[in-house]
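Handout, tutorial session.
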Amino acid sequence: MRSLVFKGITWYDDPSPSEKDLRTIQKQFGFHDLDIDDCLSEHERPKVEDYDSYLFLVFHIPYMSKHTDRIGKEEVNIFLGPDFIVTLHEGRIALLDELWKKLEESEEVRKTYLDPGTGYFLYELMNQLFDGLFPVVDTITKEIRRIEGVLFENEEQVDLLKDIMSLKRNIITMRSILLPQRTLIATLEHKNRKFISEDLALYFDDILDAIERQWSLLDTAKEMIDALQETHEAWLQHKTNAIVRVLTIFSVTMLPLTFLASLYGMNVVLPYQEHPQVFGGVVILMISMVVLMVGYFARKGWL
């Protein structure tokens, strides 16, 4: 666990806390056993717990995996007191590391973020984490535009079902992660004023506005991907029907020709079979039948 101190306020951060580490800080600050159990559990719901001497927060940060292009989530547990803030999470979070580096290298940044108190630092911390989600939402929007371009600008049949379903899964996952965060941020302004002063309510409203904008963009993305899926399915159905129509016309055209060829292939006495021009006559009859049938299909608009 790393720590950073400025004017009596300490920020503790651990990217991979063990049970021993958690019990140590529990003994130091008097955290509740249930909160420590929540930190040890793999999947805890987002929430805010209010105690006399500290606040305990659990929230989730979505991220885009570079290896799988799938949306995942990182759980962040925060203990907030009047002179300390503890952040616990599994694995490195780039935005947290960047913030830590800024504070470590610049006293001016430490003064800006920590001097107003732990409540303001919590705002700055959460503001940077949730502002960092806009690039993820932008990635989803760009992928929708790419699929839309391929679907409407390509005259050939293109199977985009896998791309559409993968993007739809990311949108659903992103929405399921953001939904409880809206309630979590909204409740922070009503919590213990010893840690989050009344004048910080406006700041947390700003975070809530950012989440609402992301939610609105995802809502639009969901409608667009649903429409693209319906359009893609209709396009595939249209192409399939066109192929089936051509094959059906081909089969219907060949049916009488096959019958005529089979008829004259029987080992029985047939009319004109001894005539020297019978082969040419059969060929001309077949061609005439094909021309008549194709002309009929064209007049009906089936071709």
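The second record follows below. Compare its token runs with those of the first.
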Amino acid sequence: MANSKSWDKIFRDYKILEHNFDKEPFKLSALQIKKSCQKFKDTSEKEVRILCKQDTREQRPEIFIKNGLFLLPVKNGFYNIIKGEGYVDIPTIDNEIIIYASKLDFKLDTAGIGDSEMQHLDYAYAASLIRTFAEDPSLVLTIRGRKYTPNFNFYVGKQLIDVSSVQTEVDAGYEGKKQIVLIEAKNFNASNIIIRQLFYPYRQWQEHTNKKVVTLFFDKDLGGNVYSIWQFEFSNPQDYNSIKLVKSGKFKIEEK
């Protein structure tokens, strides 16, 4: 399991399993992680950024999996180890593929060069698939790249989590007349993702607008030309686990 040796040592050094997770999360700093892992030779065994990248359930070290724990950044250089469900399933879309006619009246020569998440997302937007799925022809691209969150808090179960200026990144954000649409894009047929990747940007942009904030997950089929989109929403902005699926669809873009 990824980074299990390093995390086993971190848990031993700071007696993390003796902590009462029902009361509060365990607070851990990047400096503590570095100190605990300084004698490991491989970069992957001591680099904080690599050790703390746990974007799917399967990417968690064994000690996290066995004890029902997950990791969240809460401030620059600080983390919370939390007991609970940190991930959301990306359900298989069983509906038939919808043939979507591109709204462009010409063929894009450049769209087929490369295979990046950003490229596929840009193509879907250029063809107006994103606008159509979101039922909002007014959407324009206004958000991209890394930004820092304002201060906010929320609950995982009964545990209160305080977040302050954590770096977030959305693959694309669009603003329309009545809503903001934020998209997390992947290119590997994910079966689950950490809720944070949808929740933190959602809470972040709620602070800057009175418009509805919509979160989408976007995936391009490997080796094919099928675009899958899921819309999630949080019924309670204070509850990390209040995420639920609103709708989803599979599309194949047909150019004119």
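Points raised in discussion: The mean pLDDT is 93.
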